[in-house]
Amino acid sequence: MGKSENELIKLIIKLVNKSDISSIKQVVTEILKIIKDESSSAKDLRNIVEKDPPLCAKVLKLANSAHYGYPKSISDIQEAIICIGFDAVKELALNQKVCELFMKEDTTHGFSRLSLWKHCSAVALCCKMIYRREFRERGDNIYVAGLLHDLGIIVEDQFFREMFEQALKKSAQEGINLYIAEKATLKIDHAAIARTIADDWNFPDELIHAMGLHHEPTEVEEEFERIVFTVYIANYICQREKIGYVDAPFRDVNLFNKCLSSSGIKAKAMDIIVEELKEEIKKLDQMGWFIS
Ligand SMILES: [Fe+2]
Ligand SMILES: [Fe+2]
């Protein structure tokens, strides 16, 4: 590529901020504000939902689905938000923007944006389950961290297609994980790209670390261990269970176990979460979640 890392980072930020990817910045910032602010109401959430017609349609579709079993049909957005629940609507709002970016039926060397989206949704779900079950915590940033951890892959696919394809090929041929191959072909990997963007968008520090260290969690400072280890664990599980796209087929079981024990998570407890995750994914599949 012949560019220094600094120049490359500047170029990436410029390209991303001029593209459709930057639409994620606004929705994530707005939703994180609502998550943090205890006094936010259904009205604040309605304002976000109403600005986004495809999201509006999804919220109404979900509220009227058999899953919630309401006897009458719901056509009012605020009513639909109350019916589905605040948390689910926030997740839906985040998912909607991210999934719009991933909706491209274009497969190259086993990679497709659709399957990456399924992977990212599953990692987000798994992260949330770990926080709730194991830490009894909601975790303001954890769902977004799971959903966006592989954002750098989209950036590579969009702006550096040729080098990205080389990395995919190299990873398959040499039996190495994608992020290692990327360092050779692009001189930067997708985790570092994600970290750069999150930093430029003024995302919370926790989120920047979780996105940037999702393949190399041991480099984390103590303060961010919980979120970084959780994203690593969830990412590992989704790859092992082959839910959606697999960017790191060569897994380090020792590192996985280390993250589990440092987080105080027992192997048995993790098995229960995995079973629950698979059930949830099955339900989402049946609802057509990963298609439109
Ligand atoms: Fe990754
Ligand atoms: Fe991943």
Q: Would you kindly provide a written description of the structure presented here, covering whatever features stand out?
A:
The chain has 292 residues and is mainly alpha-helical. The protein folds into two domains: 22-102, no CATH class; 109-292, Hypothetical protein af1432 (Orthogonal Bundle). It has helices at residues 5-17, 23-36, 42-50, 53-63, 77-84, 86-102, 113-134, 142-148, 151-159, 161-174, 178-185, 190-200, 205-212, 225-240, 253-262, 267-286. It is globular and about 60 Å long. The chain binds fe (ii) ion (2 copies). One fe (ii) ion binds next to helix 7.
SSE inventory with pairings:
Elements: H1 5-17, H2 23-36, H3 42-50, H4 53-63, H5 77-84, H6 86-102, H7 113-134, H8 142-148, H9 151-159, H10 161-174, H11 178-185, H12 190-200, H13 205-212, H14 225-240, H15 253-262, H16 267-286
The structure holds fe (ii) ion (FE2) (2 copies).
